[in-house]
Amino acid sequence: MVSKLAEVVGPGTGTIVLKSDGTPFDEAMKSSLRGWGYAVATPDQKTDGSKLIQLAYVVDSFEGSVLARLSTSTVDIGRAYTVTSTGAAPSSPLSIMRRG
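Predicted structure:
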């Protein structure tokens, strides 16, 4: 999902502001964002004045799947995943909603 976010927002175009909760998804998200060239900050951190991109996410279970959604002021990206013993695998197409 981060690769599609980078495609829509632009890779490494600013600092992602993300409220951390310490979950495995949160840690994987921060690692993936950094891998795409984004600086990652928490809402209370001082930043260097670069473009700030507020990012929120929701992870929830529904009918045996896990639903994940990333949201910025310009785009929502969502996908369903099936949880396996080795991790999660996409079980739906990627959904993208752009705001004008």
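Summary: The chain has one domain: 2-98.
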